[in-house]
Amino acid sequence: MRIDVRDYVDLQRYPIDQVGTAAYAELVAAMRSQLAGDGCAVVRSFIRTDRIGELVAEADRVASKGHCSFNETNVYFTQDKPELPESHPLRRFYERSNAFVPADNFGPESILRAVYEWPPFVAFVKAALNEDKFFRYADPLADVIINVVEEGNGFPWHFDTNNYTVTLAIQNGEEGGEFEYSPNLRSSDDEHYSAVGDVLDGDEGSVKTLCLEAGDLQLFKGRYSLHRVKPVSGQKKRYVGIFSFVEEPGMVGSPERTRQLYGRVLPIHLERADVRADELID
């Protein structure tokens, strides 16, 4: 079945297929303004409310295929620095659990994939982010995925290693799962470790809380904004679709990182890295 994205995106409110119109220009300007303000922009009910059930059903069908990984990490995803005081942010490690449904579970019948590959959507996100170098990720396991969060899990405080994320809320848990962030807490030339430590110690003075609802599209610049997802409670899973874009065409993930996130690699990952499967370190 061929998916027509125009049946799912609320184009009456958000005419992202009408480049050159005043309405399109106003929408892009509003997104850029939000991003300039605190690195976060949200399009509420981007997906029509009467079609959310279909997205949830899609997520339900593939949720069991998610790969779970568990590790301890600091907010920077770096190694420990024993020479620093134990209270330093670089030395504070938190349990982190991930469950991602790989991209090869989303074929031609997938609503998520249809949105991700729809040219007006790609052009709109590029314009909103004001990015010159902007391409869909070529990784067949990671271009469009779903993050599944079950009871007791969330994401601890962290900075992203990439410049931005593009996500679509599909379903919230029964309780919890709020997105919290401290905008622009660090900069390219100053880590502001003291301010980071304050947030980790529980100071909420700089923290904003965002409650996303099913169908909301979020663009977030998390490289410089500390953020987390509070733990989810209840039997209902939290589903978030993740659309991956990169700065160079043809990019794929490293074999090590790919296997960590998705539990396996494909020939393209090995070929690009020029390694054999038996050379990967567990």
What does this structure look like?
- The structure is a single chain.
- This protein is an alpha+beta fold and 282 residues long.
- The protein has helices at 22-38, 52-62, 111-117, 119-129, 193-200, 255-262, 267-273; strands at 40-43, 67-73, 94-101, 135-136, 144-149, 155-158, 165-171, 175-176, 179-182, 208-210, 217-220, 226-229, 232-233, 238-243, 245-246.
- Strands 1-11-7-14-5-3-2 form a 7-stranded antiparallel sheet. A 4-stranded antiparallel sheet has the order 6-12-9-10, covered by helices on one side.
- Helix 1 crosses helix 4 (119-129).
- The longest helix has 17 residues, at 22-38.
Question: Which descriptors would you attach to this protein?
Answer:
single chain; alpha+beta; Jelly Rolls; 7-stranded antiparallel β-sheet; globular
What's the SSE pattern?
HEHEEHHEEEEEEHEEEEEEHH
Main sheet characteristics: 7 strands, antiparallel
Shape: globular
Query: Low-confidence spans: pLDDT under 50, at least 5 residues?
Result: none
CATH superfamily: q2cbj1_9rhob like domain
User: Could you give the count of β-strands?
Assistant: 15
Number of helices: 7
What is the fold named in CATH at topology level?
Jelly Rolls
Structural class: alpha+beta
Averaged pLDDT: 95
Strand order of the largest sheet: 1-11-7-14-5-3-2
Level of helix content? 10-25%
User: How many domain modules?
Assistant: 1
First-last Cα distance? 40 Å
CATH class equals Mainly Beta
Oligomer: single chain
User: From the alpha-carbon coordinates, what is the Rg to the nearest angstrom?
Assistant: 19 Å
